[in-house]
Design goal:
There is one protein chain. By secondary structure, this protein is mainly β. Helix content is about 0%, strand content about 70%. It has 2 domains: about 1-65, no CATH class; about 70-360, Beta Barrel (Porin), CATH 2.40.160.40. The protein has no helices and 19 strands. The protein has strands at about 1-15, 20, 25-30, 40-50, 55-65, 75-90, 115-125, 130-140, 145-160, 165-180, 180-200, 205-220, 225-240, 245-255, 265-275, 280-295, 310-325, 330-340, 345-360. It starts with a strand and ends with a strand. The strands form 2 sheets. Strands 6-7-8-9-10-11-12-13-14-15-16-17-18-19 form a 14-stranded antiparallel barrel.
Length: about 350
């Protein structure tokens, strides 16, 4: 799509030497299919208004034809990442991403200080791209000292359909342990469609419409297996100069946590606004919430007047990425969670900093 805007009506538009059939107007959008050759392609657009003023823009497009099946690399290692962080958490047992609902632990019994170590490799296997890594956390406090680790694998395949559309297939595997105990294995399956477009002001927009299933296999015998089934709408807008990003995510589904009182329907929304302050510093502000309506059973109706259990956890966060050297990033983070609930309300404050390093193969 070609966008042209002038102070007076655009009367002439030439693309690669070919006059286009247009209706004179001060602002117009032209959809034109251009045949690209392998390698670099130079596209020249010239617009002329009613006053005779003319302006040209040269656009270079690099085109790589689809690789024949026989030429596809079986495996390629794209790089490694390592991250080390130190955080303070005044309520670590209650997390918006927690796989199961927990009550409030007395503050004196909580491990407030958290150390993070993550090692990961980025790879491509045939037509799939993804990441495999190990994420370890050590919690230390007055009365608790606990280590957790999670081995994870995430991969995605995108089949281009033309016109900026693609079909996505995703898979994730997460093995969570605490100390020497197996806790749970989570598998994620996602499928959907991704659309690329330009909006009226030239921003690039990426939209995902999909559905996913998370299956939880809990090691404990007193918990049945759980699952999340949901739909997702995820859209990201990127400014033409790539200095500003806005991301909005909506989810809707049902969650089974392997507990008698832990099944609920949910609707979630996640908003994030990011701005590049310099070519090395990026700041992001985020807000998210999730409405949880627990299912009708005796356990969820215990309490004053038998009120149904409903939760509305909300999170406000501010984080940044500072590239202080080649391949190095400093990532400060601060977040506040308000767990509105008619059963067990809580608050959580989380802040700290981590350092991330990229290693190229």
């Amino acid at each position: 799509m070609i966008l042209v805007e002038g102070e007076s009506n655009i009367r002439s538009l030439v693309v690669d030497g070919v006059e286009q059939n247009i209706t004179p107007q001060p602002q117009l959008a032209l959809f034109k299919q251009i045949t690209l050759q392998p390698g670099s392609n130079l596209i020249v657009v010239t617009a002329t208004d009613e006053q005779g003023a003319s302006q040209s823009k040269r656009i270079e497009v690099l085109y790589q034809p689809p690789t024949a099946l026989s030429e596809i690399e079986l495996f390629r290692l794209n790089g490694y990442q390592m991250e080390l962080g130190l955080f303070q958490d005044d309520n670590p047992g209650l997390d918006l991403n927690s796989p199961h609902y927990q009550g409030v632990t007395p503050d004196a019994q909580q491990a407030d200080q958290q150390t993070l170590l993550r090692v990961a490799s980025l790879w491509k296997l045939w037509v799939f791209e993804g990441e495999i890594g190990l994420r370890g956390r050590h919690y230390q406090g007055n009365q608790q000292d606990l280590s957790t680790d999670e081995l994870y694998l995430a991969s995605e395949y995108a089949a281009e359909l033309g016109g900026g559309a693609a079909w996505l297939l995703g898979f994730g595997y997460y093995d969570h342990n605490e100390g020497a105990l197996d806790i749970a294995i989570r598998q994620r399956y996602l499928t959907g469609f991704r659309f690329l477009s330009l909006d009226a002001i030239g921003q690039k927009r990426i939209t995902l419409l999909g559905a996913y299933v998370d299956k939880w296999d809990f090691a404990s015998e007193w918990r049945t297996d759980g699952q999340d089934i949901g739909m997702i709408w995820d859209t990201k807008s990127i400014s033409e100069d790539r200095q500003y990003e806005q991301n909005t995510v909506f989810t809707l589904g049902t969650r089974t946590q392997g507990l008698y009182s832990g099944d609920y329907n949910f609707f979630g929304a996640d908003f994030a606004w990011a701005q590049n302050l310099t070519n090395r510093l990026k700041v992001q502000v985020g807000y998210r919430f999730e409405v949880r309506a627990f299912q009708d059973n005796a356990a969820t109706q215990r309490g004053a007047f038998g009120v149904m259990h409903n939760d509305l956890p909300q999170e406000l966060s501010v984080n940044a990425w500072w590239g202080f050297a080649q391949g190095w990033r400093l990532k400060p983070l601060a977040a506040y969670v308000n767990g509105n609930s008619n059963k067990i309300p809580y608050e959580r404050r989380f802040y700290g900093v981590s350092v991330e390093k990229d290693f190229n193969p």
